[in-house]
Each structure stands twice: as structure tokens, then as C-alpha cells.
Amino acid sequence: MDYKASGVDIDAGNETVRRIRALARSTFTPGVLSDIGSFGSLFQLEPGRFREPVLVSSADGVGTKLKVAFLANKHETVGIDLVNHCVNDILVQGAEPLFFLDYLATGRLSPDVAEKIISGMASACRDNGCALLGGETAEMPGFYNEGEYDLAGFIVGVVDRERLISGRAVAVGDVLVGVPSSGLHTNGYSLARRIVFEHLKLTVDSHVPELGCTVGDALLEPHRSYLSMVRPLFDGGRIKAMAHITGGGITDNLPRVLPHGTAAVVDAAAWEPPAIFRWLQESGNVSGDEMMRTFNMGIGLIIVTARDKSEQLIEELQARGGRAARVIGTIVAGEPPSVSYVNLP
Asked: How far is CA 19 from the centre of its chain?
């Protein structure tokens, strides 16, 4: 008996590392002190750049969006999803990313598929100025179905302590600025898949007139990064809090950044949800409350700012790619922090 006959191909693992080494090196920044293949990854903060540096970390996955990638046999975009999701999670506290690590687990390792996944990660890391520093590729026969894998990401960023965005300054009368998403991002796919593939009996290649594309293209639209759009706005204390709208939608994510004594009122008529959300709601007969708690509904990031600073903030967001950024609600008195809606669809 040998290891390969048991389902683990060490040669395939070595070939995967060989293929991704150049991809990872293309993301390296001056702080990287190690190469791919080291037992531990080394990174040095730029001396003198931060007065009182605070490291900010996060870990996340892509969820059942991976199931759509399997069906479409399209694997580059989920790597982008993973990096951008993690970047946004630390961005809301004012941090910029330093380095990223990934975990890829599969039943039988395919170097071709792994290379596509990592190429997406590397592309997103380069776009965000973040080093793909290392990771783990695990071949686990009998644990995953043929052709399936799981994916997780781990990010570390940094912010000067005096520039941390904590939400403590949020006050009654502040406004909520919504920044558009690029689609479902990485949440709500268990419900979306049930509507699309079980209820409507569609395939990833089915063309949907309401969407102007195939089901696969609509559901695999990559998760958007807000780093380049928002980072230039940190000066001046205009941003009091930010919420990345992920699992739980606006309903569960916005209260996470509000201080005690405050709550939020969101006007659901303040923006037009993209066609995919309307199509899913109508096709699945989903209530407005359920949509708001499952999907981002076209708002991927919410910024809390003073009312008298909101107009200029929106103009700057729109100039940097947030063309449909707008005020979508207000901060009111309330306990505990929560979200209520008016004009639910």
C-alpha cells in the first residue's frame, strides 16, 4: 500500500506549489521577508510609518457560492471573492491590508483548478496592495465530493491607533451612506441556489432575460473591494463608522458598529436594488424582511457620517467608482442598537 493509492498525491501537491509560486511572488510587497514554501511566513512593518500600529485581522470563506463555481467549472472568481471579502472586513475599522493567507481543501487535488483559484487570489491581492504570503493546500480523500473543494482566507492589516474607526462617535442625527455592491457578493447563496436550481429548475447556462446574462455569470459576479474608494476619505474624521454588509444583510451587520443608545432607520426606497435581487424575490416569493436579512440588496458597504459632511463624502465616493452612493437612512435614539425599515419592497 502507498499514500497515492490511498488518495493523496504528493506529486500533485508539489506541482501545485510550483505553479502558484510565481503567482504569489507577483503580490509581494517590500515587507515580505520569506518565500512560498517556508514553514512560517515573515512580514516586517515599514519602520517609522506608523506611530502606534494596531494589527487588525479577519478570517472568512466563500460559502456555498462555491457550489455555483463547481457547476459552472469556473474557479478564478472565487479567489477574488475571498480576498475582497477579507479586505473589506478590516477596512471598516480603518485598516489597510498587509498580507493574506489561504486554505484550500479538496478530496483530490487538481493543479489546474488550484492554479485558477490562486490566480484569482493573486489578482485581487495585487489590486489591494496586499501580499499573498502563504497558505495551506490540503488533499483529503473521502472528505469532499469529486470535483469539490472548500476555501478560507486569513488577512492581517494595520492602522494607527489614533485613526481606528470604532463607531464610538456615532450620534443621533447622523446619516447612513450606502455604497453599491456588485451583486450578491458572498452571502445568501443557500437561498439563491434553492430558488434558482431547485424551484426554477435552471442551470448555470440558462439565460435570464431580466438579468441580461446567464445564471452562472450573475451568481459568480465577484465580491467588490471598497479599499481604493474609501481609503482616501479617512482624513478629517468624516467617517464615524462603517459596516460591511455580509451574512445577515443590513439587518444584522449595521448594529455591530453602532454604540449603545443608537439605532438606525433605513429607507428601502432610497435606492433601486439590482435586477438579480428583484428577480430572486419574485421567483422565490421571499418577504422584504427576509430579503434584507439574507442579501445585501445592492448595498455592500454603509458609512455613518455627520449630515453636514455627507454631500461632499458622496461626491468623492462617486468620483472613485461609487457612482450610486447615496444617503439611505439616519441614526436615531434606540436601545439596543438595531435596524428598522420604511418602504420595504
From this structure: 26
pLDDT tens-digit map of 193-237: 999 999 999 999 999 999 999 999 999 999 999 999 999 999 888
Q: Give how far Cα 262 sits from Cα of 152, 228, 296, 335, Å.
A: 34, 29, 22, 6
**Helix (H) / strand (E) containing 261:** strand 261-267
CATH fold for domain 10-163: 60s Ribosomal Protein L30; Chain: A; (3.30.1330)
On whether the CB atoms of residues 136 and 227 are closer than 8 A, the answer is no
H helices within the chain, ranges in order?
Answer: 10-25, 65-72, 76-91, 111-128, 189-193, 215-219, 227-230, 249-253, 275-284, 288-294, 307-319
Which tens digit of pLDDT belongs to each residue from 293-310?
999 999 999 999 999 999
For residue 29, give the C-alpha cell.
Answer: 510587497
Phi, psi of 74 (to 5 degrees): -130, 115
Give the tens place of pLDDT for each residue, 9-28: 778 878 888 888 999 999 99
In the chain, residues under CATH classification 3.90.650.10 are 175-342
| pLDDT at 237 (0 to 100) | 87
Prior bond to 47 cis, omega within 30?
no
- Paired sense of beta strands 326-334 and 241-244, if any: unpaired
Rounded to an integer, the average pLDDT of 132-153 is 94
Q: Can you tell me the distance from the alpha carbon of 272 to that of 343, in angstroms, rounded to the nearest whole number?
A: 12
- Residues 162-177, buried b or exposed e (16+ Cβ, 10 A)? ebebebeebeeebbbb
pLDDT, averaged across the chain: 95
Where residue 1 falls among pLDDT bands split at 50, 70, 90? confident
Would you call 84 helix, strand, or coil by DSSP? helix
Whole-model pTM? 0.95
Between CA 16 and CA 326 the distance in angstroms is 45
C-alpha cell at 318: 462617486
Q: Using an 8 Å Cβ cutoff, are 325 and 180 in contact?
A: yes
175-342 domain in CATH 3.90.650.10? yes
